Amino acid sequence: MRHSLFISALALSLMLVCTLVHADRIRDLVTVQGVRENSLIGYGLVVGLDGTGDQTTQTPFTTQSVNNMLSQLGITVPAGTNMQLKNVAAVMVTAKLPAFGRQGQAIDVVVSSLGNAKSLRGGTLLMTPLKGVDNQVYALAQGNILVGGAGAAAGGSSVQVNQLNGGRITGGATIERELSSNFGSGSVINLQLNEDDFSMAQRISDAINNRGYGLAQPLDARTVQVRLQQGNASQVRTLAYIQDLDVSVPLQDAKVIINSRTGSVVMNREVMLSACAVAQGNLSVTVNQQQNVSQPDTPFAGGQTVVTPQTQIDLRQSGGALQTVNASANLNSVVRALNTLGATPIDLMSILQSMQSAGCLRAKLEIN
Q1: What percent of the chain has pLDDT over 90?
Q2: What angle do CA 54, 48, 87 make, to 5 degrees?
Q3: What is the pLDDT of residues 248-257, one digit of tens each?
Q4: In this predicted structure, what is the pLDDT of residue 2?
Q5: Structural domains in the chain plus CATH codes
Q6: 299 or 80: which carries more pLDDT confidence?
């Protein structure tokens, strides 16, 4: 009987340990140095709009762009012509050149209004060269724009859902120039961790060395260097094996992220609280000022009209009770302890900052 109880307890312990151990693939934790995307940008014109284009009197560069385009097509616009182009909009086009993009490959582009166009819905982007940081043309973009927003206006009232001045063209650009790369020519691969972590760097290095795919060595908290074995000089084959290895994820740093613009508070499961006392209340001050006008009793008495300001200040303070927050060792307990304060997210930001200053919050506080 005791033996069966011991086995049951051991099995339950193993199950708990297995649930606590979390493993991720190396491909989800690192990136390969030198293998990255490159940004492309271009200036173009969108035509075919239903009267929602730029107001050319306020965006003269749209008219100038149209004149330059027409001149390249052999059409000369008479000097002094005041074109009212309600169906044309000047836009900026952005795209990402893949790490191993090949000539003729199609990539997605994002089109954004540059002037004061009301909507790009139904528009067509004319051929636009996309340049890199070296001012070289790497792709050409053209096609119909897909706008996710919608809107309507009538009688001075308008309704709009999402953004109308930006859209996307799936496969709207074609790569015309390839970016040179020396990948595959050396015998060293540098893996860059997504987050700085000495423990993670060491675990990735140990996982690679245990499988014999190369000689791995962590250089710092961000980089793991892998030297290929003699006779196995293919970086592609080595990376194909390395990226699918599972690595147990160590405990993360306890963090609390506060976004002061949106009032959101996010914390991970490693956050802990020490016992402390918190007094939280709201102080409101209302100032009301009125002008009292005093006039003479009779119209011809010779008196003057006197204006006397009357100010009333009302100060109210609610809450303010001293509440005890018990020590909490897991995320659920931390949330319950903070909920007992009855504070709003805005108040919670100040409370968490004060808790960290007092040493009650066992976490790093980041304010965005």
Answers
A1: 23
A2: 25
A3: 877 777 888 8
A4: 44
A5: 38-151+158-175 (no CATH), 182-248 (3.30.1360), 255-294+307-367 (no CATH)
A6: 80
